[in-house]
Amino acid sequence: MDIRRKIILSLFLTSFFLGVGTVGYVVIEHYTPLEAIYMAVITITTVGYGEIHALSEAGRVFTIFLLLFGVGSLAFAAHAFTESMIARASSPVRGKRVMGKKISRLKGHTIICGHGRVGGAAADHLAQSGRSFVILENSIEKSNYLREHGVLCITGDATSEKTLISAGIKSAGSLLALLNSDPDNLFTVLTARELNPTLHIVARSESASAESKILRAGADSIISPYASAGRRVAGKI
Questions:
Q1: What is the pLDDT of residue 130?
Q2: Domain boundaries along the sequence of the chain
Q3: Does residue 211 contact residue 192 with C-beta atoms inside 8 Å?
Q4: Is the pLDDT confidence value at 88 over 80?
Q5: Range list of β-strands (E), the chain
Q6: pLDDT reported for residue 85
Q7: What is the pLDDT, as a whole number, of residue 224?
Q8: Among 20, 21, 93, 199, which lies 20 to 30 A Cα-Cα from 227?
Q9: How far apart are CA 51 and CA 159, in angstroms?
Q10: DSSP 170
Q11: If DSSP codes are grouped into helix, strand and coil, which group holds residue 59?
């Protein structure tokens, strides 16, 4: 049973036993309606303020049954509402709202597009130096893992204007386009430059032929992981 149905059922049961208690005290103990409601409420809630007057034997038996079933329905209602609040507190929607508020307060942060080997290394370096950053990652599994570890991460396409805006690009100081595809990095740079003309953009390039295109799209500098690794290896000889 889902939480909404539990809440509806718990409210119905509580109201039902409150009504039964009210009618019962009117019929058995000849209470006025107000006195009967009062007695039913303090019985179901186990407040224990005391009886309006001494109960008859039939009234005591009725009170025992009302306690057993009425208190049970109230406990069920409390459990349903608690479960609902916990579910709301831990829901993805609320998590996104909280993360969105944190990102909206950032100024001069870095946006890392892609959490692969290069993006992960960049994120580690920024974290160690105490600089704020937001990661854009297409993989839901990776995104969930990063968020669980307290990293500001948005699941989405880094080439999308909407995704970049949600990462706070208009107040960001820099962007690292580190996707595995040159066309994706090209479109990311192009979109980012349109949204923030003063943004410092570093882009990854897999091929030499794509470097000039990415620079013309608005990147300030280009990195080529494989070329850099090759030069470092050759330098060891």
A1: 94
A2: 3-89, 92-235
A3: no
A4: no
A5: 110-113, 133-137, 153-155, 174-177, 200-204, 221-223
A6: 74
A7: 86
A8: 199
A9: 71
A10: G
A11: helix
Which token pair is 96?
């996104």
**Residue-wise pLDDT tens digits, 124-136:** 999 999 999 999 9
pTM over 0.85: no
Classify domain 92-235 at the CATH superfamily level.
NAD(P)-binding Rossmann-like Domain (3.40.50.720)
Say yes or no: do domains 3-89 and 92-235 share a fold: no
DSSP letters, 74-139, are HHHHHHHHHHHHHHHHT-HHHHHHHHHHHHHT--S-EEEE--SHHHHHHHHHHHHTT--EEEEES-
Residue type, 156: G
Tokens of 197: 């003309």
**Residue 219: how many other CB atoms lie within 10 Å:** 26
What CATH number matches the domain at 3-89, 2.60.120.460, 1.10.287.70, 3.40.50.1370, 3.40.50.300? 1.10.287.70
